[in-house]
Design a protein that fits this description.
This protein has 348 residues and is α/β, with parallel strands linked by helices. Helix content is 24%, strand content 26%. It has eleven helices and 17 strands. The strands form four sheets. Strands 3, 4, 5, 8, 9, 16 and 17 form a seven-stranded mixed beta sheet that branches. Strands 12-11-10-13-14-15 form a six-stranded parallel beta sheet, covered by helices on one side. It has a two-stranded antiparallel sheet with strand order 1-2. Helix 8 links the parallel strand 13 and strand 14. Helix 4 packs across helix 10. The protein starts with a strand and ends in a 5-residue tail after the last strand. The structure holds NADP nicotinamide-adenine-dinucleotide phosphate and zinc ion (2 copies). One zinc ion binds next to loops.
Length: 348
Amino acid sequence: MTAVKSYAAQNETSSLAPFSINRRKVGPHDVQIDILYCGVCHSDIHQSRDEWGGSIFPMVPGHEIVGRILDVGDKVTRFKVGELAGIGCFVDSCRTCENCKAGLEQYCEVSLSATYNAYEQDGKTPTYGGYSTLIVVDEKYTLKVSEKLPLAGVAPLLCAGITTYSPLRYANVGKGHRVAVLGLGGLGHMAVKFAASFGAEVTVLSTSKSKEEDARKLGAHHFVLTSDKSQMEKVRNHFHFILNTVSANHSYSPFMNLLKTDGTMIIVGAPPDPTTVPAFDLIAKRKKILGSMIGGIAETQEMLDYCADHAIVSDVEVIDMPYINKAYDRMMKNDVKYRFVIDMASLK
Ligand code: NAP
Ligand code: ZN
Ligand code: ZN
């Protein structure tokens, strides 16, 4: 065991504070990573405040992890000491169910080991995330990271990146599609970059007027302030897809009206409470609602390689570890442009 510095929430009302965790010894198939950066996802807030229920404490959040390999087990074949590596939202899964075999490990039917707020495959060892200086993960669940891109901007690709890349690919979004991105935060700004890169005409739907200029810089062609009735009216029956990244409770209804016949609302945002969807929102123009959660290991690697080839990274504000509670407060005010990333040197 190695004692490792981290930041943890002790319960759903406590702020995050320094905490010591133990990482396992490097096993034959393991990769040990010196964590350099970790992105801050809104899911870290939901879970550390137990907004989804069932949180496991103490909790060390963080699932957008990049760093350099310090050690590898003797059976490891794909990684070498000194290389960059990434860890996303899960560190293991059953490996035998239909979804695991199909490369959809994120939908493991038996026992997904999320990177934190979960248990290892033994069902009892808690997993701790990337708000820490070191992590040990099986090479099968470790991603290759290019040396070509600025590393702090790569970290958010491990969750915000794959969570938006995967459903856009699944839906074959590209040329000829009008795509709206609802909510311009960590996920939203990656969705804009990917949808534009895939050739779609992209509109940002936002509550924040101040983000209009940024939306265009990120690659959006249009911007709609959702509180402005006349702007909303202009995009009625307009979009083939809406990618909904909103983190807070809200009604889908005003946005369902913006979809064309056969249009799809893709839900990736995970607000704490359920919402109701009137049947007429769906039946009137044969509309669909599609959910999607992160992505499998192979697709995450495909996304990282795509980003390296197309020079796509997240727009980040790099922070020190002790700033994390202020960062959470700012995210609750939609004040992040567009992902906080922790420089882990600040914890070493
Ligand atoms: P974020 O950076 O905090 O961005 C969320 C954005 O939602 C805000 O910037 C804001 O955009 C909009 N928003 C917030 N409150 C709103 C409200 N009351 N009404 C309307 N819009 C509001 O969060 P994130 O990290 O991108 O995560 C977004 C959501 O996705 C979270 O619920 C998170 O848990 C979830 N998530 C899901 C997956 C998955 O696998 N499906 C993966 C990661 C995260 P504007 O300022 O533009 O309005
Ligand atoms: Zn996340
Ligand atoms: Zn499985």
